[in-house]
Design a protein that fits this description.
The complex is a heterodimer. By secondary structure, chain A is α/β, with parallel strands linked by helices. Chain A is built from 15 helices and 20 strands. Chain A folds into two domains: about 230 residues, FAD/NAD(P)-binding domain (3-Layer(bba) Sandwich), CATH 3.50.50.60; about 120 residues, FAD/NAD(P)-binding domain. In chain A, strands 1, 2, 3, 4, 5, 6, 17 and 18 form an eight-stranded mixed sheet that branches. In chain A, strands 7-16-8-9-12 form a five-stranded parallel sheet, covered by helices on one side. Chain A starts with a strand and ends with a strand. The chains are: A alpha/beta, B alpha/beta. At the A-B interface, helix 6, helix 8 and helix 15 of A face helix 12 of B. The structure holds flavin-adenine dinucleotide.
Chain lengths: ~475, ~280
């Protein structure tokens, strides 16, 4: 059986839910959302490892059109963010629109009927317009490690935490030193008999100004919502300030070094540890991370830092690139996500059957970071050049929501059945991305990072500018960039 | 002597005006789609101090020139500064139309330049500026002066930070967190002379000669030059639009990224908002 809908949204993370909320609020009920999992929440349903929390303050990392006055802390734990998203979905009446346990397998543009044909684990859907909101950090990345299958203990990725695993008193290895690893390591240090941290490269870490909000503050926020908006504005522009680091502005780089080096020196006393946790690349090339508990944990008696990548596994023995072997009972892979080549791309077929991954074989690209020439009636959220290392991703998401809502209204207004991104507009936009990215630390900082496409050395994941500039540029649909039929 | 503003080399130069030796900085950009921006700093400031963030960030998109105001041999008046800025523009950007940006006292200077040379000042941005010194400013200026004369540098520095930053900004920080800002206050004789100039500002009669597309930026929590002054400028300058930033007078330190957005948006397209518009403050 085929289900038809004018608009099919795929994914119920912040992107998919946010778009649906906006549509619903303007009285548009003609859409279906499919979700491969059994609940909403995306990132925050999946990432509930011990210590999981946001690293953009919650009063900013939430929808501007759905403020929450009673965030428990400056940086809310993952479960609270997940609860917030479930509340949004319920409170805004989205649940009846969502088809859970429905995995998109394949989506193809049908030129004859001018429809998308979407195959899912629950049968076929057809839709006039498809919005992919399948995330940019939704599919975990395992490093290709020789002998991984020979390991008989507990092993899982940070985003697929096995909450039934018994880790207390065990010998545990954490592989990675990114944002998730930094949150996991202090928690594992508390329970492991021995913790081995495999660290390919040391991150820069600065203080994390976390604290609980008092009941009085929460009530003030509730009674005076403007005070929430004022806080949000402070937080946004405070984070925005740090974009100057990505441009390598000497004053900002100096400030960042002062903060990161000062934090490390204040927290690390062991000279051996100090050597290992001191980064060897220019600050800002990878994300600057926040934690007050990471360095203390790294110095615990039961923690050993192997300042080398994990190379292979033999039975329960983990062997590093430096050739050192460690016997452990459990391995946590905090090794990040597939961001350069989105896992959905091979399954989206545009005109003439071309897949997005073929089209993107030299790196992701999109018009206004949202649509792709040759893929009519398709909007992509959190796709090419949307990532932010220095500010809230939701600022980009909300800009894209406005863009897509504008595009849908434009189609309706013209009674258009086909919305066709102009290839020349896309080319202009890609050139503009190259211009904007030139001179950013991602391209000049001399470190491997997951924002730059390894095939072309083009920055394809991150938005290479202030966050505000994303909204200036892409916060409104641009009819001139499209042809309609 | 050189200060490092951007990653790329910035040309530094010096010219002599009325016996004052003036330093200027030029990002030397050939993209040329926009008018070059000329930055004028405020009281006791300099390019490095007031535009350490804005100069390099604006320069990522276009040519930026900045002036370090200097002490003339003779009497110091607002017109001394006007002649200095005009001299740098004539020297560095001869024959070009410019977007002139002034902050605080620099906004007063910029307004006088725009009134005197409407043919070259095509666009004008006045950040936390004013047209006529009022009693609130005079009272603050007198207290400042008494502290300066007393030689109590510590009290002067604390008073300066107390007035310069917005009350929400100060209130949300510990004294330890504010210590660097207090420590950074450094008043020279030239700075004190500028404080005297601030007492007698009255450029009201010149404002109707300004023809530039003008953006007036007021700071919501400004206690040094309260935003009503910016609203006065908005009313007095024919081709003006107005916007507000939720910050104290020290907006170049408190909200430099937001200030960047406002200046950059305006420089890119000065006509986007018609004269008379109050451009809403960004709600992120
Ligand atoms: C641990 C962690 C912490 C983070 N912290 C922050 C932070 O502090 N601040 C910040 O700005 N950003 C943070 N991020 C980035 C975060 O990913 C984004 O902010 C945001 O949550 C992305 O939302 P999304 O809706 O695009 O994707 P997701 O939340 O990933 O949602 C995608 C949804 O699509 C579904 N889906 C995927 N493929 C299919 C398919 N084939 N069929 C059906 N459904 C499918 C998934 O199940 C999922 O529910 C963090 C990311 C991680 C992993």
């Amino acid at each position: 059986m085929t289900t038809h809908t004018p608009l099919l949204i795929i994914g119920t993370g912040f992107a998919g839910l946010g778009l649906a909320m906006k549509l619903k609020r303007q009285g548009d009920n003609d859409f279906i959302i499919i979700e491969r999992s059994d609940d909403v929440g995306g990132t925050w349903r999946d990432n509930r490892y011990p210590g999981a929390a946001c690293d953009v303050p919650s009063h900013l990392y939430s929808y501007s059109f759905k403020l929450k006055s009673d965030w428990s802390r400056v940086f809310a734990p993952a479960t609270e963010i997940w609860e917030y998203m479930r509340w949004c979905a319920q409170d805004e009446g989205l649940m009846p629109h969502i088809h859970f346990n429905t995995n998109m397998l394949d989506a193809a543009w049908d030129e004859t009927s001018k429809l998308w044909r979407v195959q899912t684990s629950q049968g076929e859907y057809t839709a006039n317009v498809v919005v992919t909101a399948m995330g940019h950090l939704a599919d975990e990345k395992y490093p290709a490690i020789e002998g991984i299958e020979s390991f008989t203990g507990e092993k899982f990725h940070s985003a697929r935490w096995d909450h039934s695993a018994q880790l207390d008193g065990k010998r545990i290895a954490v592989v990675g030193s990114g944002a998730s690893a930094l949150q996991i390591i202090p928690e594992m240090a508390k329970i492991a008999s021995q913790l081995i941290v495999f660290q390919r490269s040391a991150p820069y870490v600065i203080p994390r100004p976390d604290r609980a909000y008092t009941e009085a503050e929460k009530r003030r926020f509730a009674r005076d919502p403007e005070s929430m908006e004022a806080l949000r504005s402070d937080l946004f522009w405070g984070m925005e300030y740090n974009y100057a680091q990505r441009r390598g502005i000497p004053k900002s780089i100096a400030e960042a070094y002062t903060m990161a080096n000062g934090h490390r020196e204040a927290q690390v006393s062991d000279p051996e540890v100090m050597k290992k946790v001191t980064p060897d690349y220019e600050i800002g090339c990878k994300r600057v991370l926040i934690s007050d508990v990471y360095y203390p944990a790294m110095q615990s008696a039961n923690v050993y830092i192997e300042a080398s990548a994990l190379e292979r596994i033999e039975g329960n023995s983990l062997i590093s690139q430096d050739g050192n072997a460690f016997e452990v009972d459990a391995v946590v892979f905090a090794t990040g996500f597939e961001a350069i080549e989105p896992p959905f791309a091979p399954h989206i077929h545009g005109r003439n059957g071309l897949t997005l991954s073929d089209y993107w074989s030299t790196g992701m690209q999109a018009l206004d970071s949202t649509t792709v020439a040759g893929f009519p009636n398709l909007f992509i959220m959190n796709g090419p050049n949307t990532g932010l290392g220095h500010n809230s991703v939701l600022y980009v998401v909300e800009s894209q929501i406005d863009y897509i809502v504008g595009g849908l209204a434009y189609m309706k207004e013209r009674s258009a059945t086909v919305l066709e991104p102009r290839p020349e507009s896309e080319t202009d936009y890609v050139d503009e991305m190259i211009d904007r990215a030139a001179g950013t630390v991602w391209l000049t900082g001399g470190c491997k990072n997951w924002y730059v496409d390894y095939r072309t050395n083009r920055l394809t994941v991150t938005w290479p500018d202030f966050a505000y500039a994303f909204r200036d540029s892409n916060g409104e649909f641009v009819p001139e960039h499209y042809a309609t039929a | 002597m050189g200060i490092v503003l951007t990653k790329d080399p910035v040309v530094e130069g010096e010219i002599l005006v009325d016996g004052a030796s003036l330093r200027y900085y030029d990002s030397m950009d050939s993209r040329g789609e926009r008018n070059p921006i000329v930055l004028v700093h405020g009281t006791t400031g300099s390019t490095a101090v007031h535009y350490g963030y804005l100069f390099p960030m604006l320069a990522t998109r276009q040519r930026v020139v900045s002036v370090d105001l200097g002490q003339p041999a003779g009497e110091l008046t607002i017109d001394s500064f006007r002649r200095q800025v005009e001299a740098v523009i004539d020297h560095v950007l001869a024959g070009q139309k410019v977007t002139l940006v002034g902050y605080s006292l620099g906004a007063v200077v910029a307004a006088t330049v725009a009134a005197d040379r409407p043919e070259i000042i095509e666009n004008l941005v006045l950040v936390a500026g004013w047209a006529k010194t009022d009693s609130q400013q005079l009272l603050r200026n007198s207290v400042w002066n008494a502290l300066y004369e007393s030689g109590n540098k510590d009290a002067l520095a604390q008073f300066t930070v107390f007035c310069a930053f917005g009350n929400p900004f100060v209130g949300a920080r510990t004294l330890d967190e504010l210590a660097p800002a207090i420590k950074a206050v450094n008043v020279t004789e030239f700075g004190a002379a500028q404080m005297q100039v601030n007492r007698d500002i009255d450029i009201v009669d010149r404002l109707d000669k300004i023809t530039a597309n003008t953006l007036v930026i007021g700071c919501e929590f400004d206690q040094m030059v309260p935003k009503r002054h910016s609203k006065d400028l908005f009313g007095a300058i024919e081709n003006a639009r107005y916007t507000e930033i939720p910050s104290g007078h020290a907006v170049v330190f408190e909200r430099p990224a937001e200030l960047h957005k406002q200046i950059d948006n305006f420089a890119a397209d000065p006509h986007r908002h018609p004269a008379g518009t109050i451009i809403p403050t960004v709600k992120p």
